[in-house]
């Protein structure tokens, strides 16, 4: 968050991605993804036992816990990479060679919308898969069991689009079968972006079922033949759309009755409190209806899904973690790169910040246009100087309420605003327990002096007070960058 610079200026929007759909793509998604995801490998059982602390029950991340037929554990490899380790039941995959071959095939399918598979293990009776770790829970948790806020409408549309992208990529890689697509198979990464679990790309094991959910949600052809076909995946995508629309797990037959009866409002999630565009909701309902056709041949393909949901993406400039209200972990800047003021703001030491601002005074504004220095000596200017003087005295004496009053009068009187006055009033607001107003003033200081590190550091301090740690870290980084730029220009 900054008042002059956009943090999303280099982020490619979903619309931009869709425009590039015809361009040749790497087998592993884009090059950056390829570099970040380690090559698929076979792990030994000892490695994975160590990574999961002996398959400790405290490390289980399956939403059904130990009751799940195939339990997923959080693990940490020797290189400190976090992984998800899926441990199959003893009867699964009796043929170790078949298991490894299938896992290696799935491991070649790489994409930024997939939870990529990075390894497997087949020792004795053990069959394990190793995938990227997703720290922000499943779609099921965010839709059906949310704590603080329901999943926003724009995020639901993004889930629909990103999962369509994942399915389309799998299709292009000739992995057209996805087993049991549901809200548990969609997970959120550290950026809050939804991804499709690669576990569902594994072919059916001997004891497993292609659909673990209630039979009411399975494609009609599966009930008839027990087989999954590519069109079955589209049907399951339709059930996920119903989940996104309703915030509940509604049997498709019931949902279709509501749709045919034009009772779309009854289908919509009441927790959204009407915060969605009716036309977009109608389009998503129509798409769900097409996906849920009883005859497989009447359902659309993945290209059609993309064409249908891409235009619904409206808030493409807003990061997923912001839409979801998630704290995004950012690597902290080494404190050695911060100035004393930056370090004081990073540790939220208001007293130290006060001392530094006092010592600095107004010298950072030397050379800047200042109405006080050039105006004719009039009664108005004398009054302005006196107001500034009383404000500075109150600030020095830590009478922050008076400082706010004087500086507020001064801001109105001055025809050219002072970055230092805004900075001092920002700290006074912080001392007075008003971080929102402090943030506003720190941003105003940045408007006055766009590359002034103090303005960025004070924004960081206010953001930290507001609990917005990711944005605070960004501001510290920006402040340090301008600090370094200033020092380099002096050296030059």
UniProtKB/TrEMBL annotation:
SUPFAM superfamilies per record: Protein kinase-like (PK-like), TPR-like
One CC-aspect GO term: plasma membrane
Name of the protein in its database record: non-specific serine/threonine protein kinase
InterPro entries: BSK, Kinase-like_dom_sf, Prot_kinase_dom, Ser-Thr/Tyr_kinase_cat_dom, TPR-like_helical_dom_sf, TPR_BSK1_C
Chain segments carrying region Disordered: 1-36
Subcellular localization, as worded in the UniProt entry: Cell membrane
Gene3D superfamilies: Phosphorylase Kinase, domain 1 (3.30.200.20), Tetratricopeptide repeat domain (1.25.40.10), Transferase(Phosphotransferase) domain 1 (1.10.510.10)
UniProt main location, coarse: membrane
Gene name tied to this protein: LOC104606449
GO biological process: brassinosteroid mediated signaling pathway
MF (Gene Ontology): ATP binding; protein serine/threonine kinase activity
One Pfam family recorded for the sequence: PK_Tyr_Ser-Thr
Coiled-coil intervals, chain numbering: none
Ranges where the Protein kinase domain occurs: 58-324
Catalysed reactions, as listed in the record: L-threonyl-[protein] + ATP = O-phospho-L-threonyl-[protein] + ADP + H(+); L-seryl-[protein] + ATP = O-phospho-L-seryl-[protein] + ADP + H(+)
Classification of source organism: Eukaryota, Viridiplantae, Streptophyta, Embryophyta, Tracheophyta
Keywords assigned: ATP-binding, Cell membrane, Kinase, Lipoprotein, Membrane, Myristate, Nucleotide-binding, Serine/threonine-protein kinase, Transferase
Protein's membrane topology: Lipid-anchor
EC number: 2.7.11.1
Bias kind Polar residues: ranges: 1-13
PROSITE patterns attached to this UniProt entry: PROTEIN_KINASE_DOM
PANTHER family hit by this protein: SERINE/THREONINE-PROTEIN KINASE BSK5, SERINE_THREONINE-PROTEIN KINASE BSK2
């Amino acid at each position: 968050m900054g008042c002059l610079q956009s943090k999303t200026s280099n982020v490619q929007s979903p619309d931009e991605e869709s425009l590039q759909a015809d361009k040749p793509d790497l087998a592993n998604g884009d090059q950056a993804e390829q570099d970040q995801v380690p090559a698929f490998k076979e792990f030994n059982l000892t490695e994975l036992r160590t990574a999961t602390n002996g398959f400790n029950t405290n490390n289980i991340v399956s939403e059904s816990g130990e009751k799940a037929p195939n339990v997923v554990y959080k693990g940490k490899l020797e290189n400190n990479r976090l992984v998800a380790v899926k441990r199959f039941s003893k009867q699964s995959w009796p043929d170790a060679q078949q298991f490894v071959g299938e896992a290696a095939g799935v491991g070649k399918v790489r994409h930024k919308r997939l939870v990529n598979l990075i390894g497997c293990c087949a020792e004795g009776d053990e069959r394990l898969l190793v995938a990227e770790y997703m720290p922000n829970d499943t779609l099921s948790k965010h839709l059906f069991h949310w704590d603080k806020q329901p999943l926003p409408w724009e995020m639901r549309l993004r889930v629909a689009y990103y999962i369509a992208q994942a399915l389309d990529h799998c299709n292009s890689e000739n992995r057209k079968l996805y087993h049991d697509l549901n809200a548990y198979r969609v997970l959120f990464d550290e950026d809050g972006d939804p991804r499709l679990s690669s576990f569902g790309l594994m072919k059916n094991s001997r004891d497993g079922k292609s659909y673990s959910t209630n039979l009411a949600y399975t494609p009609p052809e599966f009930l008839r033949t027990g087989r999954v076909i590519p069109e079955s995946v589209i049907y399951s995508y339709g059930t996920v759309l119903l989940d996104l629309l309703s915030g509940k797990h509604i049997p498709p037959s019931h949902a279709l009755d509501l749709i045919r009866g034009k009772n779309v409002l009854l289908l919509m999630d009441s927790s959204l409190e009407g915060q969605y565009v009716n036309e977009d909701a109608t389009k998503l309902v129509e798409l769900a209806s097409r996906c849920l056709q009883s005859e497989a041949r009447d359902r659309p393909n993945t290209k059609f899904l993309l064409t249908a949901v891409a235009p619904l993406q409206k808030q493409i400039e807003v990061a997923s973690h912001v839409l979801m209200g998630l704290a995004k972990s950012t690597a902290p800047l080494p404190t050695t790169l911060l100035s004393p003021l930056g370090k004081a703001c990073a540790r939220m030491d208001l007293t130290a910040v006060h001392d530094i601002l006092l010592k600095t005074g107004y010298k950072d504004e030397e050379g800047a246009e200042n109405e006080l220095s050039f105006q004719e000596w009039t009664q108005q200017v004398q009054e302005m100087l006196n107001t500034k003087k009383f404000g500075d005295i109150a600030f020095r004496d830590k009478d922050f309420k008076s400082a706010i009053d004087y500086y507020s009068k001064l801001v109105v009187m001055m025809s050219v605003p002072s970055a230092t006055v805004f900075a001092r009033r920002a700290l006074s607001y912080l001392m007075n327990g008003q971080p929102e107003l402090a943030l506003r003033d720190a941003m105003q200081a940045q408007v006055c002096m766009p590359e002034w590190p103090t303005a960025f550091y004070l924004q960081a301090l206010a953001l930290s007070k507001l609990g917005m740690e990711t944005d605070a870290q960004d501001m510290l980084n920006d402040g340090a960058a301008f600090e370094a730029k200033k020092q380099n220009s002096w050296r030059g």
